[in-house]
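User: For my dataset I need records formatted as: sequence, then structure tokens, nothing else. Please produce one.
Assistant:
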Amino acid sequence: MQLGRYEEILIDLARKSDRLMVMTAENRAAIRNLPGIIPERFIDVGICEQTMIGAAAGLALRGRTPIVHALATFLAFRAYEFIRTDVGIPGLPVKLVGAVAGFLSDGNGPTHQALEDLSLMRGIPGMHVFCPADEDELVGALPTLIENPAPWYVRYNVLPAAVPHTAPFQVGKAEVLAQGKDVTLLTYGFLLREAAKAKELLEAQHLSVGLVNMRMLKPLDEAAVLAAAKQSSLLVTIEDHFQTGGLYSALGETMLKHRQSARVLPIALEERWFKPGLLPDVLEHEGFTGAKLAQRIVRAL
């Protein structure tokens, strides 16, 4: 039996605390070995996400901390009212883990593309929204988010490390990987890898380039955003999400709140779903490879 790091952390946390419950709506890819190891803590409700959220809320009311798993589309959209009403209004510590969100749904068509999940989750008062750049960031944050009393939405991502991380995970804190005078790239999730490539290409053109791994879209690290706006001539938001409601919107809200202004280039999906394909082909076609990002940024400078 080969356990993934995500499974190992969940098993360790479950053995340290009898409050943790692992649940799924027949989406076992990330937790396939857990039923045989912690069967008393594992519940598969079948393909019924709404029921899973209702059951998780009930368990949370009895003092448990459920961490629930489903495809991001069916978790964030199909079960949205249950998340808002059963989890969000009472502020229960249910942890929602959405699989294959954004471009990670690569080969699937629009029905299975979660590109507005972050917008919906950001809109629920008290909800925390976390988009790990890679497996290191996901497993590093798990103990914190399990212990945190708020509800959380997490974009599941166990891809290899995107960059050498320089700061441990903290709630509401971005990871500032570099500061730059000409442009600062702000991103989250697995696109950090492509943003880092774009940074290298831009620096080869003698530009001063900052790079910020936002990690969380809620609470947003407003200080990191404001500092980047003060330091750089141009801010670029890079995200595999619709332009509405994601990082670009959160940045705009922050700038208005603090009565600041900045030149901003949003790179996101504008009013359309992406063309399905293998992930490298999706990134190339949609203009999200490091090289394509660098080209778009140079044109904006």
